[in-house]
Amino acid sequence: MTDDIHDETGYQPLRPQAKGLGEFLAPVAGFGVTFSSMFKPVVTEDYPRRKVAPQSRYHGRHQLNRYADGLEKCIGCELCAWACPADAIYVEGASNADLPENADAAPGTLDADSPAGAHMSPGERYGRVYQINYLRCIFCGLCIEACPTRALTMSNDYELAGNTREGMIYEKQDLLAPLSEGMLAAPHPMAEGTTDTDYYRGDVLGATQAQVDWVRERRPDDETLDAAKAVAAGRREAPEPRQHELRPDAGPGEAEKAAGAAAVGSVRGAAGDRTGPSGAGGAAVQRTEVTR
Ligand code: SF4
Description:
By secondary structure, the chain is an alpha+beta fold. Helix content is 26%, strand content 8%. It is an enzyme of class 7 (translocase).
């Protein structure tokens, strides 16, 4: 019958036609792949119950890094914003000398390059406003290449989701690397006797006693004081930089909850990341600027 049809239509099958038992089983032969797969290990991921870490070179959520004494590496130069092909980054720099903590300094005693007085970052300037719009970002990494101080890097955190457009604009306090144990929260003076070049070269390995004393005088309740004091006294190892990480695996009963959290801007829920007055100020200033 089949051959008759072929004869009538001129159709020539490319593969030889099965005969006998093979022809009888041909309609269900495709299920062989299904049946054989039933006995192999499952390769699908149980996300969000279990979170699989991507490769170390994965381009995930950005982070703004800190020096070992807690000062920020970003100097507000805007090179990352200019390098961004998607126009996803917005930066406003400001002078350290203009920090509110320096308002009482006597005129002329605190020029822009002075290591004394309050600093958010070493040197003259710091990033007062820093935003990344993750609705625009294409994770190309060109901003990382452009950064002259290695302030901006990318972590392995891929949990970037949100319910609102506004929620996908990450502010400075969302992007700043968490303070490691032993770092002293900014603002505070630069390590005495150092320049910004010493910081860039990695010569500052932790907070000094003078920095601790400065913070204690102005913010006696600062939670980072004790650990930083131990580093300054040599009783504790110099702090290692930290980076944003995937949130922990969820238990079986929490899978649905975790899925909901991931959708509701999970990363933005990291309230512990919010550090320092500059970030808080920036959040209020420019939330809509980057939504062009
Ligand atoms: S992250 Fe780097 S490139 Fe961007 S403003 Fe800060 S220092 Fe400049």
